[in-house]
Amino acid sequence: MHAWPASEVPALPGKGRDLRIHDTSTDGLVTLAPGPVARIYVCGITPYDATHMGHAATYNAFDLVQRVWLDTKRQVHYVQNVTDVDDPLLERAVRDGIDWEGLAERETALFREDMTALRMLPPQHYIGAVEAIPGIVPLVERLRDTGAAYELDGDIYFSVEADPHFGSVSNLDAAAMRLLSAERGGDPDRPGKKNPLDPMLWMAAREGEPSWDGGSLGQGRPGWHIECVAIALDHLGMGFDVQGGGSDLAFPHHEMGASHAQTLTGDFPMAKAYVHAGMVALDGEKMSKSKGNLVFVSQLRRDGVDPAAIRLALLAHHYRADWEWTDQVLADAVARLGRWRAAVSRPDGPSAEALVEEIREALANDLDAPAALAAVDRWAARQDTDGGTDIGAPGVVSRAVDSLLGVAL
Questions:
Q1: All residues at 6 or more sequence positions from 106 whose CB lies less than 8 Å from its CB, including other chains
Q2: Where are the domains of the chain?
Q3: pTM (2 decimals)?
Q4: Model confidence pLDDT, tens digit, residues 232-261
């Protein structure tokens, strides 16, 4: 599966700072100091509907992570999956009377278009669950053969008790885990499971649903969590720098994935930091496909909204914050974009060297994009009221905003 084209990231003078970021597993800030190549895995979409603002906010957060690392003169090895077979996708295809593969291909293509328009840097490896199945099957077989997994009516479940570190990502108690498991794709009440929290690794073939040859596992398809584990281990290995996604993935998805990987390898932890973006709401409720309360990036683009304004609307909120999309949020972003473009359209202006360092410091401090935007606002205000004599300063600002914030002026 191919990703989307990369926009150019302008090189800036000097060097950025190492990233301090909130790690869910420790509930505190950690300083990430990767080697020459920083490694990040971000969980991708289940392509049964278009990219909404909640998706965009999440991918914007991890795009900033990449830009901070690139500014430290590191390379970035970024991997993202596409869950191109799963219950929600199959259910939507049945509801709409269309082929599930065609639905997945259509919505994945639209996602690529949205990411390109928003100038999100693409992953080096963009892997679908279906194409990962040959690598998933032997992992499930290993877990089963070592006693870390068991069969139940043809399905294969992972035993969470096989991992002594289970629970260390989300740090939730068993009662909270059980509630979230039921809400987020698990089946804690299924009779016969050794532990209600045990997640499915391999689902035996169901009538009328797609299935693949699982070798000794039989016909079926993979569970959600093992998909990401297989892809991450194949392309990044253990101990990669950041595991990323929305806050609703901390449990069960990232918790279970970490346990799968740690049990398979005997190493701990799967990732050095588990980083989670906040949720975006509309009309007082979390924006989600199941609720249908969505604002789509593609629809805004069709309505003529500049993608740079959409990106500024996202950047106006701290990545870990839960916030609400409103017409005013977008109007404010459109106005800000106009002020910034006017400010950099002049041949000279106030010195920009300090501004570049302010943006760097803000982003290195747990991706504080609102502080970075405020710094650019102050420079633009000085340009508007006092001007300046630094020839080329507007160009420096334009390149910095593009390089570090992904906004083309």
A1: 47
A2: 19-286, 298-405
A3: 0.96
A4: 999 999 999 999 999 999 999 999 999 999
